[in-house]
Every structure is written in C-alpha cells, then in structure tokens.
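Are you able to produce any protein sequence you like plus the matching backbone structure tokens because I've never seen that pairing?
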Amino acid sequence: MGPIGVVLHLFKHVVAGALAVVVVVGGLAWIVSPDVRYVTRAAVAEGGILLRARPIAAVVADSATDPRTRAKLELVLAARAFAADSLHLAAKRTYTTYSRVAHDTLVMVLTASRTDRLEAHTWSFPVVGRVPYKGFFTLAQAQAEARKLEGQGLDTYLRPSDAFSTLGWFNDPLLSTIVGEDSADLAATVIHEILHNTIWVPGHVPFNESLADFVGYRGAQAFFRARGDTLNAARAAARWEDEIRLAGFYDTLTARLDSLYASGAAGPALRDGRTRIFGAARDALAGPVARALTTMDGRWLARQPLNNAVVIAEQLYRTHLDVFERLLEEQHGALVPTIAAVRGAVEGGGRGPGPADRWAALGAAEAAPR
C-alpha cells in the first residue's frame, strides 16, 4: 500500500503448482526453468509463514504477549470484523492468525520499465493475469533479476515490502512486519487486503490497487468514527488526502514524461530530457509537495530513486482516485453502496481487453441516475 508497503500477490498456484511440477516434471524442470525455481522457492517461503502462524485470539490471550502487540492485534480483529460486518467485504479467514518473521522486510518487489516510454515490464501468473511487479524472498535473487533487466536497457526499481496478499486463496496471516504501523495505517492495511478478497480484476493491477487504497483509507475513517476514535479517524483522513496530493504530483510527472517520449527524443536528447524532468520533480517533492503533505515526508521522498519504473510503481496505487471519490460523493459519502457500485460496474460491464475499460465502466456507473 504505497509508502505503507507495496502489496505482493502470491497465489495458491505457488504451492499447488510447485508441488505438481516437482512430482510430474522432477529435477530436470528445476535445472532448466527459472520460473519453476521461482515458484518453488516462493512455495517454500509461503509454507514457512503459514506453519508459524498462530490464532490471533490465542496470541492476545497469551500472558507473554507484550501490551503494545496485544493492543495492535485486538485492533486488527476489530478492523477485520468491521470490514466483514459493516462494509460487507469477503473477510474469509484473512488476518485471523499471526506469524512472526525474522526481519522487518518480508519480500523485495521489483518493477521495471522501458527508458523511452512509461511501459511496464510484466510477469504473468495464473488467476491474476499479467502483473507489473515480481516479489523475491531473498535480496540476492531480486538484485540478480534487476541486473538482468538493466542489462536489457530497462529502468528498474527494487523496494522492500512488509506485507502480501493471496487474494483469499490462503488464510493470510497477519505478519509481525506490519504490527509496528500506526493504528490508522494498520486498520487501512487490514481493510485494503480484505477488499482484494472481494474484488480483483485479473490483469488490471492499477485498478485493483487504487480501489483497495481508496477503500482501505475511507474504510479506516469509518471504522474509527464508529469506535468514537476521532484522533485516528482524522489521521486516516489526513493520510488519504496525502495520497490524493501525491496522485496529482505523479499525474503531472507522467504527463511531462509522456510529452518527452512522444517527441521522439533519443540518445543524449532523451537522457538530458529525463534528467531535467526528474530533477524538477525532486525539487517539487522537496519543496511545495513536502509543504503540502501532512503525514509523509516529501523531502525523504525526494532523496529516493526516481525513474520510469519508480513512476509506474507509485502510480499503481494512485490511478484515477478522483473517480472513486466522485462515486463516493454520488452516494452521499456512504462507502457500502459505493463499493457495490464499483463491483457492479466491473462485473457487469467494461469487458473489453484494455485497462481503460474498467474506468469507462465506472464512469458510466457514476453517470447513471440515482
């Protein structure tokens, strides 16, 4: 979820597929197929996480659990119940267990792009379709893949993630890597991940992630208001406003890059143009954007890597947020009918092959008489 931690999607086929490959194809496939090796490693890592999981209720009741962790786990259970009972999301068994991991970073997530256009390099997986990122449980494997793509002339962006989702295929445990988040972000993360169980459009990652971010933070606001926790409700609202501000920043940056790439610039002209645009973007992050943000440090963001792959990764969670906001306004601020309108639009319309069809379907839902 943006700066909270990019959500890595590993799926049921990781375990089932890995076992099937080992049994049917055997050691030869391991030797000749990088995909088989990747899926098998992911299956082993996922299996370890699941084996270490304990019921959250048992961890809460355990006298050895420190008070801060207990309070956060109780908050997770409450947010999960709110997502299921009040927002009518498919909570399934997500976040009913808790798993400790050895490090603060669970996975490394890799994004890549061409240098002469904002075009993501993608990987294909069953169930979810093509996705513009790939996760690795070891830094060495992630760096090796990044170097390979850079050798092909691509921009790359490698970043840590502290959470993942299996879209409800497994009983996703809450990981110790995210318990340290503040209460507003933690509740938003819980609702974000459960939204993925409810609505997931294969091959449309920016739509899925942007919708989940919207429901996560708007849902967290509603959750804390229902508990009478005005402080955390305000914190969730402020965090969402910062997401909208950053969406505007990246929209502007994207437009400038698209203009450069459409000009046909190549060689030194392309490199100089990129340097100029990214330099101006860093200045904006450190200056006016930093002054506008209230829950994030724009100056810190300005010091981070910035290239096409970074822009694509950041936009995954901040695409057309205004569409969701307008739908919410049409529903007089009521989140449940807004989610229902989105679900109806994506399941009942917009069946074309391109990603824009989902936004077009939402536009039609927004324009429909109430």
